[in-house]
Model the fold of this input.
Amino acid sequence: MTDQISDMLIRIKNAQAVKKESADIPHSKLKMEIAKILRTNGFIGNFSKKGKKNNKIINVVLLYNKEGRGRIHDLKRVSKLSRRIYRPLAMLRLIKRGAGLAVISTSQGLMTDKEARRKKIGGEVFFEIW
Done:
C-alpha cells in the first residue's frame, strides 16, 4: 500500500457504507491530524489511538443521521502520489457551495480550505469531502 491517505479515506467510506460503528486505520501522525480535522467539522465522531509500538491503530467512530445515512456523502482524492496538485489562494474554491471542505497541507500545517482562505495561504490539496 503506497497511498496512506487514500487508504484511510476508503476504510472510513467502506465502513460507513456497511453501517459499522467504527473503522480501524493504521496509525500515523498525518492520519491523526486528518482525523482531528474531520472530527472538528462533524464528518466523524471521536477517535482514539490504540496499541503499542508497531501495532498502533486509530479507531474512528462513525456518525449517522436520523435516517441512518452516513455524514460523509462522498469524497474525492485530489492530490495523488503520481500527480501533486498545489493551489494558490486565488484558486481555492468552495466545495459543494460551502457544504463540503478541502483538506490542504500548507506551510503552517494541515488545515481546511476555509482556514487557508482566512489565513490567505495556499498549498497542496489532499482531498475534498462533502
Q: What stands out?
A: Residues 4-17 form the longest helix (14 residues). Strands lie at 22-26, 44-50, 57-62, 75-77, 86-87, 101-106, 109-112, 123-129.
